[in-house]
Amino acid sequence: MPRRDDIKKVMIIGSGPIVIGQACEFDYSGTQACKALSQLGYEIVLVNSNPATIMTDPGMANVTYIEPLNFKRMKEIIKKERPDALLPNLGGQSGLNLSSELARAGVLEEYGVKIIGVQVDAIERGEDRIAFKDTMNKLGLEMPNSAPAFTVEEAERIADDLGYPVVLRPAYTMGGWGGGHVYNVEELRTVVSRGLAASLVGQVLVEESVLGWEELELEVVRDAKNQMITVCFIENVDAMGVHTGDSYCTAPMLTIDPKLQERLQKYSYDIVEAIKVIGGTNIQFAHDPKTGRVVVIEINPRTSRSSALASKATGFPIALISSMLAGGMTMDEIPYWRDGTLEKYTPSGDYVVVKFARWAFEKFEGAEDKLGTQMRAVGEVMSIGKNYKEACQKSIRSLENGRYGLGFAKDFHERSLAELMELLAEPSSERQFVMYEALRKGATIDDLYAKTHIKPWFIEQMKELVDLEEQILQYKGKELPDQLLVQAKKDGFSDRYLGQILEIPETEIRVRRTALGVVQGWEPVPVSGVEDAAYYFSTYNAPDKVGRSERPKVMVLGGGPNRIGQGIEFDYCCVHAAFALRDEGYESIMVNCNPETVSTDYDTSDKLYFEPLTVEDVLSIYEKEKPEGVIVQFGGQTPLNIANELAQAGVRIIGTTPETIDLAEDRDRFRQMMRKLGIPQPASGMASTLEEALQVAEEIGYPLMVRPSYVLGGRAMEVVHDEEMLKRYVSVAVDVAPERPILIDKFLENAIEAEADAIADGTEAFVPAVMEHIELAGIHSGDSACVIPPISIPAKHLDTIYEYTRRIAVELNVVGLMNIQYAIADDTVYILEANPRASRTVPLVSKVCNISMARIATQVMVGKRLADLDLKRQSIPHFGVKEAVFPFNMFPEVDPLLGPEMRSTGEVLGMADYFGLALYKAQEGAQQLLPSEGSVLITVSEKDRPAVLEVAREFDNLGFKIKSTIGTHTFLSEHDIQSELILKMHEGRPNIVDGIKNKEIHLVINTPSGKLSKYDDSYIRKAAIKYKVPHITTLAAALAAARGIAAYRQGKDSVRSLQEYHAGIS
Predict the structure, then answer these.
(1) Exposed/middle/buried for 166, CB within 10 Å: 0-12, 13-18, 19+?
(2) CA atoms lying within 13 Å on the CB side of residue 885
């Protein structure tokens, strides 16, 4: 079947901001869909609220809408654009839920829009727990015993029948949000009430527990001719009970009987045939190794995190093929490198792939490091090796958490076997590392299997690594025998780890093994569905099979796994670098290990090495490819951490030098430079001990901003108000970086923060825009809402910021990108910090101002001059407001407060002609829909009371009913503002939480009540999140919200494409 001619214009709904459970794998799938459908000749309308993605670049689709992803906005876009078809299964759970909502409400029928790829009733059959169960019953396939509940009481009755423990699964959610394993009725009540609130349809499935069974996944593809293939068999090494997004996985399945794999394949084909999905589907099974019973857990009739992993593990681009199939093609029309056409595909490949998740528990004070059925990971890495041990060890050194091997993590090696076994009682992010030390201490394979349900084969492999390591450790201080070094490298031990355990420099290991001829060879992973494409992985277990061209080349180092503080924005920059290098006539070489991203798509760069970003791995690629140089400033902190070592090993770094980057990080040298340039900075000092810290505090006065040196994402930053807090900080934080002192700055209270991004060529700098933060100083820039162009900074200060930025870029000799943060206090512009590298705001400035910053920066790095590029600062007639998105719903035990440590996972952009409206749309995009009328709760700390008057007046003028707690209530009455008194939790009933539960409060404005009672009001913020009531924790944001509501009520609101906004820039 050739492409469909009955459709010309296709609308694709993206997945919105990056949240736990839905990360940049949907940028990858959406970008592939755009490529596939435009190659087939369709016009594309793309809708997504996430500005940090490649898919929302104006060149990816014909028309791009950066609008909130909700029913109302989708309907407006459909009415305006009149697409012929909607592709719902590439935007994750968000895209799927919205498509079925549009269909149910009759919008698609009204405007004549067909759904392609997956039918609406198929979405229901796959997502609605009751409909799915009916389908499975008809096919004679078993599922865990279960029943749906719509109330807590119903859930209790079902659980009593099934017997505890039970699993709770809310319908139409992702990442297991709102669900979990419960072991008693108390836990059941808590989790069911959370789950009913989280579910789109108020339905929770109560299901028998299959804890400890094997969890197995298949990724299958079906076309319109009912031809079906299995792309990938994935074995979750962690058994049932840990969400697949958190599970440690391998592909292919390493311990599963081929007969069972065939059975699972047959079941999968029956399921996709019954549900009639065209394109990719992920199916999860549980298998009881004791009885052989197999049950179907769930299916995802859409591209997912697992399909991104399966695509990268096999070289089969599922989203690309799914889009072609949705466009009417069939697999017998698509090429396959091995057997002619794609319907003959079978997974092949003489290698093992391992996926390891990346968590961020350290960012959330009070979060428990436990893994269950609700996903907690913020990112993941994938590694490829010739055998399991090699792949496993490569995954560890890809994680970017300072570990290069499984041993000696934290203090596990100092603990007794009994303590280690106790740590293994529940799954945690440290489980593999704890098991390694337990084996070293003499734990048996059977003990560990009984404790973790991890299959004995995997534990056996780990034991062999431990045994080899113990042999190596006997040569500490002596020369390691050749055969042990060779074996260690074949089993995946990294140079850095061997150096660490033998207490010798990594370079010595490298020289030694190179002399022995122990060097990496590379092998291709051929790509299916396209002609002549492959990407590459390294191994110490095979000779090199990959050639090199003689063209001039430039290497781009990617950002590694997604994590808080370093997200998709850096991948965006790397992708643009690859595109720009290609256009400038260079062969672009990408190095990265994140399977979710566009940078690891097979055709983003000319050559992709799917490798960890460590000195060892990057250096061997550099020596093989002999590029003109390496770009390190686009991948966030990851490449910067190794830039110096690479330079020392003779690698040519293109763009800003590592010395410059170091100078900007070195507070003393940077301060001297600012003095020389006459640029003011807040008073500051450095301290390595508590005595020094107290002395600095005395000199500059409280409040202080304290942090360790060299961090990204504000790791361990805090605002300190007095000596007691400072003492606590130093006692806890010194272990963050013992050889690097803590930095102490005067904290500028009530300052307006701003930042500027610049492109510089070493002699000149261009600043496209200044961005103003909506929250005042003290909130991390990645978490603060911000606006371009600024709304309250006087022109003279803007001129100062432009001038300072230019002077600093030239003085530092920056070549490429730079980001500088400023604070404006007492009519003075202070510089806070300068980062001579790409920052997370680059895609934002690029989209709002219509300037491709990463592209221009790449051109400058390979020798172009800014003067030749004809850049002019333009006036921006619209406003773009960025709002951060937080994972607090996944951490119900954590107080959702903002501070100097970054905690957001993603962001959205609201665009409009007026600031208030842009802010309203940004809140709407972040799922914090501001109410246009109703009741607002205002409860603020004493120090915030003077500033609350303006906020209360705005809401009063808008006709909102104000509810307030005793202190705020008294203060407002004294200033003639009416409010209704409401009780705090400890003051009696009905109280704030009752008001939130009963939907009597529509917006919560609550600033935490300071140090004395930091804990007594967190329940207000937690209740707001649980019951989906928008909550605001700073007064600056509250005032902006009131203005947003006012603008929205004036009704000047409409959807407009990015291309239309850009056309208005002069």
Answers:
(1) buried
(2) 29
Helix (H) or strand (E) holding 383: strand 379-385
pLDDT tens track for 389-436: 999 999 999 999 999 999 999 999 999 999 999 999 999 999 999 999
Q: Would you tell me how many other CB atoms lie within 10 Å of the CB of residue 104?
A: 12
**How far is it, in rounded angstroms, from Cα 913 to Cα 1053?**
9
Cα-Cα-Cα-Cα dihedral of 607, 608, 612, 617, to 10°? Answer: -20
Mean pLDDT check: name the lowest of 63-77, 549-563, 698-712, 912-926: 698-712
In the structure encoding, which two tokens stand for residue 678, read together? 């006459």
Token pair belonging to 647: 């330079």
Q: How far apart are CA 17 and CA 925, in angstroms?
A: 8
Beta-strand relationship, 214-222 and 335-336 = unpaired
What is d(CA 588, CA 432) in angstroms, rounded to the nearest whole number? 36
Residue reference for tokens 């230019």: 806
Quote the CA–CA distance of 714 and 705 in Å, as a whole number. 11
- CB contact at 8 A, 860 and 761: yes
The 3-state DSSP class for residue 1 equals coil
CB 333, CB 230: distance < 8 Å: no
Q: Which residue has the higher pLDDT, 239 or 1037?
A: 239
Which DSSP letter does residue 494 get? -
> 1060-1063 long-range contacts, Cβ below 8 Å, gap at least 24?
1061/850, 1061/878, 1061/911, 1062/58, 1062/850
- Closest of 707, 687, 709, 708 to residue 698, by C-alpha: 687
332-358 pLDDT, tens digit each: 999 999 999 999 999 998 999 999 999
Residues 6+ apart with CB under 8 A from 1: 224, 225, 328, 329, 330, 333
Q: Who contacts 962 (Cβ-Cβ below 8 Å, separation ≥6)?
A: 935, 936, 938, 952, 955, 956, 972, 977, 978, 979, 980
Cα 686 to Cα 514, 578, 674, 694, 778: the distances in Å are 42, 40, 17, 11, 19
SS3 229: strand
Burial letters 384-393, b for 16+ CB under 10 A, else e: bbbbbbbbbb
How far is C-alpha 612 from the chain's CA centre? 18
- Residues 741-754 as b or e (16 or more Cβ within 10 Å = b): bbbbbbbbeebbbb
Q: Residue 737 pLDDT > 60, yes or no?
A: no
> Are 660 and 836 spatial neighbours (Cβ–Cβ below 8 Å)?
yes
Task: Give the Cα separation of 1007 and 898 in Å (integer).
Answer: 10
Looking up tokens 């680059």 gives 842
Element (H, E) at 1021: helix 1018-1026
Instruction: State pTM to two decimals.
Output: 0.92
Quick one: tokens of 580?
A: 């720009």
Are the beta carbons of 537 and 609 closer than 8 angstroms?
Answer: yes
- Neighbour-count burial for 538-564, b at 16+ CB within 10 Å, e otherwise: bbbbeeeebeeeeeebbbbbbbbbbbb
